[in-house]
Amino acid sequence: MRVVSTIAAARESAHGVVGLVPTMGFFHEGHLSLMRRSVAECDQTVVTLYVNPLQFEDAADLARYPVDHDRDLALAEQCGVDLMVIPDPCEMFATVPLTTVTVAGIGDRLEGVHRPGHMDGVATVVARLFAALQPDRAYLGRKDAQQLALVRRLAHDLGFPLEVVGCPLIREQDGLALSSRNVFLGEHRRAALVLSSGLCAAADLFEAGECKAAVLEDRVRDSFRAGEIEYAEAFDAATVEPVSLIERRAVLAVAARIGSVRLIDNVRLLFGDRGPEADRGVWLERPSVLYH
Ligand code: AMP
Q: Active site residue: 15, 28, 31, 156, which one?
Protein backbone atom coordinates (compact mmCIF):
# COMPACT_ATOMS: atom_id res chain seq x y z
CA MET A 1 0.00 0.00 0.00
CA ARG A 2 1.35 3.42 -0.93
CA VAL A 3 0.72 6.37 1.34
CA VAL A 4 0.76 9.86 -0.16
CA SER A 5 -0.01 13.33 1.11
CA THR A 6 -0.66 15.15 -2.17
CA ILE A 7 -3.39 14.78 -4.77
CA ALA A 8 -0.79 14.99 -7.55
CA ALA A 9 0.99 11.91 -6.17
CA ALA A 10 -2.35 10.11 -5.86
CA ARG A 11 -3.21 10.83 -9.52
CA GLU A 12 0.13 9.51 -10.79
CA SER A 13 -0.53 5.90 -9.89
CA ALA A 14 -4.23 5.69 -10.89
CA HIS A 15 -4.91 2.86 -13.34
CA GLY A 16 -7.85 0.68 -14.37
CA VAL A 17 -11.18 0.96 -12.54
CA VAL A 18 -10.53 3.12 -9.49
CA GLY A 19 -12.70 2.80 -6.38
CA LEU A 20 -12.67 5.65 -3.84
CA VAL A 21 -13.53 5.31 -0.15
CA PRO A 22 -13.67 8.79 1.40
CA THR A 23 -13.24 8.72 5.19
CA MET A 24 -12.28 10.77 8.20
CA GLY A 25 -10.21 7.92 9.63
CA PHE A 26 -10.25 6.15 13.01
CA PHE A 27 -11.37 3.06 11.16
CA HIS A 28 -13.91 0.53 12.35
CA GLU A 29 -15.62 -2.39 10.63
CA GLY A 30 -17.97 0.01 8.81
CA HIS A 31 -15.05 1.66 7.03
CA LEU A 32 -13.33 -1.68 6.44
CA SER A 33 -16.47 -3.12 4.82
CA LEU A 34 -16.39 -0.31 2.23
CA MET A 35 -12.69 -0.91 1.56
CA ARG A 36 -13.16 -4.68 1.14
CA ARG A 37 -16.05 -4.13 -1.26
CA SER A 38 -14.04 -1.70 -3.36
CA VAL A 39 -11.01 -4.03 -3.39
CA ALA A 40 -13.27 -6.88 -4.57
CA GLU A 41 -14.90 -4.81 -7.32
CA CYS A 42 -12.19 -2.42 -8.60
CA ASP A 43 -8.67 -2.64 -10.03
CA GLN A 44 -7.39 -0.09 -7.59
CA THR A 45 -8.77 1.13 -4.27
CA VAL A 46 -7.96 4.61 -3.02
CA VAL A 47 -8.87 5.58 0.55
CA THR A 48 -8.78 9.21 1.58
CA LEU A 49 -8.33 10.05 5.24
CA TYR A 50 -9.16 13.66 5.87
CA VAL A 51 -10.88 15.17 8.89
CA ASN A 52 -12.70 17.81 6.91
CA PRO A 53 -12.87 21.07 8.89
CA LEU A 54 -15.65 22.40 6.64
CA GLN A 55 -18.13 19.86 7.98
CA PHE A 56 -17.59 20.66 11.66
CA GLU A 57 -19.70 23.54 12.88
CA ASP A 58 -18.01 23.44 16.28
CA ALA A 59 -14.22 23.85 16.64
CA ALA A 60 -14.19 21.81 19.87
CA ASP A 61 -15.88 18.89 18.10
CA LEU A 62 -13.23 19.03 15.35
CA ALA A 63 -10.39 19.23 17.88
CA ARG A 64 -11.50 16.11 19.73
CA TYR A 65 -12.22 13.97 16.65
CA PRO A 66 -10.29 10.71 17.25
CA VAL A 67 -7.08 10.14 15.25
CA ASP A 68 -4.85 7.06 14.96
CA HIS A 69 -3.03 7.03 11.63
CA ASP A 70 -0.73 4.10 12.45
CA ARG A 71 -3.59 1.80 13.28
CA ASP A 72 -5.62 3.07 10.29
CA LEU A 73 -2.76 2.36 7.88
CA ALA A 74 -2.32 -1.18 9.21
CA LEU A 75 -6.06 -1.93 8.92
CA ALA A 76 -6.35 -0.49 5.40
CA GLU A 77 -3.34 -2.51 4.28
CA GLN A 78 -4.92 -5.69 5.66
CA CYS A 79 -8.01 -4.96 3.53
CA GLY A 80 -5.90 -4.79 0.36
CA VAL A 81 -6.13 -1.03 -0.17
CA ASP A 82 -3.69 0.14 -2.86
CA LEU A 83 -3.35 3.79 -2.03
CA MET A 84 -4.00 5.79 1.10
CA VAL A 85 -4.23 9.54 0.63
CA ILE A 86 -3.76 11.59 3.80
CA PRO A 87 -3.89 15.05 2.26
CA ASP A 88 -1.82 17.76 3.75
CA PRO A 89 -4.34 20.29 5.18
CA CYS A 90 -2.67 23.03 3.10
CA GLU A 91 -3.19 20.96 -0.02
CA MET A 92 -6.92 20.56 0.51
CA PHE A 93 -7.95 24.03 1.56
CA ALA A 94 -4.98 26.36 1.84
CA THR A 95 -7.50 29.18 1.85
CA VAL A 96 -11.12 29.03 2.91
CA PRO A 97 -12.88 28.06 -0.34
CA LEU A 98 -15.12 30.69 -1.90
CA THR A 99 -16.60 28.04 -4.15
CA THR A 100 -18.80 25.73 -2.14
CA VAL A 101 -21.37 23.10 -3.03
CA THR A 102 -24.94 23.21 -1.76
CA VAL A 103 -27.35 20.43 -2.63
CA ALA A 104 -30.56 22.37 -2.08
CA GLY A 105 -33.45 20.43 -0.66
CA ILE A 106 -31.32 17.46 0.39
CA GLY A 107 -28.61 19.23 2.38
CA ASP A 108 -30.84 21.67 4.24
CA ARG A 109 -33.03 19.12 5.99
CA LEU A 110 -32.45 16.94 9.11
CA GLU A 111 -28.64 16.91 9.60
CA GLY A 112 -28.53 20.26 7.79
CA VAL A 113 -30.94 21.77 10.33
CA HIS A 114 -29.24 20.34 13.40
CA ARG A 115 -25.66 20.86 12.18
CA PRO A 116 -25.75 24.13 10.20
CA GLY A 117 -23.15 24.14 7.42
CA HIS A 118 -22.37 20.44 7.86
CA MET A 119 -23.94 19.18 4.65
CA ASP A 120 -22.39 21.95 2.52
CA GLY A 121 -19.04 21.06 4.07
CA VAL A 122 -19.49 17.41 3.12
CA ALA A 123 -20.66 18.27 -0.42
CA THR A 124 -17.77 20.69 -0.96
CA VAL A 125 -15.05 18.25 0.12
CA VAL A 126 -16.59 15.30 -1.74
CA ALA A 127 -16.82 17.36 -4.96
CA ARG A 128 -13.18 18.38 -4.43
CA LEU A 129 -12.09 14.75 -4.01
CA PHE A 130 -14.12 13.56 -7.01
CA ALA A 131 -12.63 16.31 -9.22
CA ALA A 132 -9.08 15.68 -8.01
CA LEU A 133 -9.01 11.88 -7.96
CA GLN A 134 -11.50 11.10 -10.75
CA PRO A 135 -12.60 7.72 -9.38
CA ASP A 136 -14.87 5.39 -11.36
CA ARG A 137 -16.77 4.37 -8.24
CA ALA A 138 -17.26 5.87 -4.79
CA TYR A 139 -18.18 3.59 -1.87
CA LEU A 140 -20.30 5.14 0.88
CA GLY A 141 -22.08 3.63 3.87
CA ARG A 142 -25.86 3.67 4.35
CA LYS A 143 -25.14 4.58 7.97
CA ASP A 144 -25.14 8.17 6.69
CA ALA A 145 -28.28 7.84 4.57
CA GLN A 146 -28.78 11.56 4.00
CA GLN A 147 -25.11 11.98 3.06
CA LEU A 148 -25.46 9.12 0.56
CA ALA A 149 -28.46 10.84 -1.06
CA LEU A 150 -26.55 14.13 -1.14
CA VAL A 151 -23.46 12.61 -2.78
CA ARG A 152 -25.54 10.75 -5.37
CA ARG A 153 -27.31 13.95 -6.30
CA LEU A 154 -24.19 16.09 -6.47
CA ALA A 155 -22.45 13.50 -8.69
CA HIS A 156 -25.47 13.58 -10.97
CA ASP A 157 -25.91 17.36 -11.00
CA LEU A 158 -22.22 18.18 -11.50
CA GLY A 159 -21.77 15.44 -14.08
CA PHE A 160 -19.08 13.38 -12.38
CA PRO A 161 -18.81 10.21 -14.48
CA LEU A 162 -18.82 7.78 -11.58
CA GLU A 163 -21.07 5.32 -9.82
CA VAL A 164 -21.96 5.96 -6.18
CA VAL A 165 -22.23 2.59 -4.42
CA GLY A 166 -24.31 2.51 -1.21
CA CYS A 167 -23.08 -0.19 1.20
CA PRO A 168 -24.76 -1.91 4.19
CA LEU A 169 -24.81 -0.34 7.65
CA ILE A 170 -22.61 -2.39 10.00
CA ARG A 171 -23.65 -2.96 13.64
CA GLU A 172 -21.94 -4.28 16.73
CA GLN A 173 -23.29 -7.59 18.04
CA ASP A 174 -25.62 -5.71 20.42
CA GLY A 175 -27.00 -3.56 17.59
CA LEU A 176 -25.07 -0.31 18.08
CA ALA A 177 -24.22 1.17 14.68
CA LEU A 178 -20.45 1.42 14.35
CA SER A 179 -19.16 4.98 14.48
CA SER A 180 -15.79 6.55 15.16
CA ARG A 181 -17.56 8.58 17.85
CA ASN A 182 -18.58 5.46 19.83
CA VAL A 183 -15.17 5.62 21.50
CA PHE A 184 -16.42 8.62 23.47
CA LEU A 185 -19.52 6.86 24.86
CA GLY A 186 -17.78 5.40 27.93
CA GLU A 187 -20.37 4.72 30.64
CA HIS A 188 -23.17 5.64 28.18
CA ARG A 189 -22.34 2.73 25.86
CA ARG A 190 -25.40 0.72 26.96
CA ALA A 191 -27.70 3.75 26.93
CA ALA A 192 -26.74 4.30 23.28
CA LEU A 193 -28.52 1.07 22.34
CA VAL A 194 -31.73 3.09 22.50
CA LEU A 195 -31.17 4.21 18.89
CA SER A 196 -30.94 0.74 17.37
CA SER A 197 -33.56 -0.80 19.67
CA GLY A 198 -36.08 1.98 18.89
CA LEU A 199 -35.47 1.64 15.15
CA CYS A 200 -35.71 -2.15 15.29
CA ALA A 201 -38.99 -1.95 17.22
CA ALA A 202 -40.36 0.40 14.54
CA ALA A 203 -39.04 -1.96 11.83
CA ASP A 204 -40.96 -4.81 13.51
CA LEU A 205 -44.13 -2.69 13.43
CA PHE A 206 -43.57 -1.95 9.73
CA GLU A 207 -43.11 -5.64 8.95
CA ALA A 208 -46.35 -6.31 10.83
CA GLY A 209 -48.15 -3.97 8.40
CA GLU A 210 -47.89 -0.46 9.91
CA CYS A 211 -47.20 2.00 7.09
CA LYS A 212 -47.96 5.33 8.78
CA ALA A 213 -44.73 7.25 9.23
CA ALA A 214 -46.04 9.11 12.30
CA VAL A 215 -46.71 5.83 14.14
CA LEU A 216 -43.25 4.46 13.28
CA GLU A 217 -41.55 7.73 14.24
CA ASP A 218 -43.42 7.78 17.57
CA ARG A 219 -42.29 4.23 18.24
CA VAL A 220 -38.67 5.36 17.84
CA ARG A 221 -39.21 8.48 20.00
CA ASP A 222 -40.87 6.42 22.78
CA SER A 223 -37.56 4.75 23.58
CA PHE A 224 -35.71 7.96 24.45
CA ARG A 225 -35.42 10.02 27.57
CA ALA A 226 -36.60 13.64 27.42
CA GLY A 227 -34.20 15.93 25.62
CA GLU A 228 -32.08 13.21 24.04
CA ILE A 229 -33.64 12.99 20.60
CA GLU A 230 -33.03 15.51 17.81
CA TYR A 231 -35.21 13.92 15.15
CA ALA A 232 -36.91 10.67 14.20
CA GLU A 233 -38.14 10.88 10.64
CA ALA A 234 -39.13 8.74 7.68
CA PHE A 235 -37.90 10.13 4.37
CA ASP A 236 -37.44 9.23 0.74
CA ALA A 237 -33.97 7.69 0.24
CA ALA A 238 -33.26 9.73 -2.92
CA THR A 239 -34.86 13.12 -2.24
CA VAL A 240 -34.80 13.11 1.60
CA GLU A 241 -38.35 14.53 1.43
CA PRO A 242 -40.49 13.45 4.40
CA VAL A 243 -42.99 10.66 3.69
CA SER A 244 -46.23 10.28 5.61
CA LEU A 245 -47.27 6.89 4.28
CA ILE A 246 -44.68 4.27 3.34
CA GLU A 247 -45.93 2.96 0.02
CA ARG A 248 -42.70 1.98 -1.76
CA ARG A 249 -39.52 2.50 0.21
CA ALA A 250 -38.22 4.90 2.82
CA VAL A 251 -35.44 5.46 5.33
CA LEU A 252 -36.43 5.78 9.00
CA ALA A 253 -33.64 7.75 10.66
CA VAL A 254 -32.87 9.00 14.14
CA ALA A 255 -30.37 11.45 15.61
CA ALA A 256 -29.84 11.82 19.34
CA ARG A 257 -27.40 12.96 21.99
CA ILE A 258 -26.39 10.26 24.45
CA GLY A 259 -24.21 11.77 27.15
CA SER A 260 -22.03 14.20 25.21
CA VAL A 261 -22.01 12.14 22.01
CA ARG A 262 -24.24 12.85 19.03
CA LEU A 263 -25.21 9.64 17.23
CA ILE A 264 -27.23 8.83 14.10
CA ASP A 265 -28.74 5.55 12.93
CA ASN A 266 -31.39 4.32 10.49
CA VAL A 267 -33.23 1.35 9.00
CA ARG A 268 -34.54 0.99 5.44
CA LEU A 269 -38.21 0.17 4.95
CA LEU A 270 -38.96 -1.66 1.70
CA PHE A 271 -41.53 -3.87 0.04
CA GLY A 272 -40.15 -7.25 -1.07
CA ASP A 273 -41.91 -10.17 -2.74
CA ARG A 274 -43.46 -11.13 0.58
CA GLY A 275 -44.61 -7.67 1.58
CA PRO A 276 -43.09 -5.11 3.95
CA GLU A 277 -39.48 -5.81 4.80
CA ALA A 278 -37.00 -3.81 6.87
CA ASP A 279 -33.27 -3.72 6.19
CA ARG A 280 -31.74 -3.22 9.63
CA GLY A 281 -28.13 -3.57 8.40
CA VAL A 282 -25.51 -6.22 9.09
CA TRP A 283 -24.53 -7.43 12.58
CA LEU A 284 -20.88 -8.25 13.23
CA GLU A 285 -20.33 -11.93 13.98
CA ARG A 286 -17.58 -11.19 16.48
CA PRO A 287 -17.27 -8.36 18.97
CA SER A 288 -15.50 -5.45 17.36
CA VAL A 289 -12.16 -5.25 19.11
CA LEU A 290 -10.97 -2.17 17.33
CA TYR A 291 -11.11 0.17 20.25
CA HIS A 292 -12.27 -1.62 23.33
P1 AMP B 1 -16.60 8.80 8.28
O2 AMP B 1 -15.17 8.44 8.47
O3 AMP B 1 -17.41 8.74 9.54
O4 AMP B 1 -16.79 10.07 7.49
O5 AMP B 1 -17.24 7.66 7.37
C6 AMP B 1 -16.66 7.28 6.15
C7 AMP B 1 -17.59 6.34 5.43
O8 AMP B 1 -17.84 5.20 6.23
C9 AMP B 1 -18.96 6.97 5.10
O10 AMP B 1 -19.36 6.59 3.79
C11 AMP B 1 -19.85 6.35 6.15
O12 AMP B 1 -21.20 6.25 5.76
C13 AMP B 1 -19.23 4.97 6.30
N14 AMP B 1 -19.62 4.37 7.59
C15 AMP B 1 -19.46 4.92 8.82
N16 AMP B 1 -20.00 4.09 9.75
C17 AMP B 1 -20.52 3.03 9.09
C18 AMP B 1 -21.22 1.85 9.49
N19 AMP B 1 -21.50 1.59 10.77
N20 AMP B 1 -21.60 0.99 8.53
C21 AMP B 1 -21.34 1.24 7.22
N22 AMP B 1 -20.68 2.32 6.78
C23 AMP B 1 -20.28 3.21 7.70
A: 31
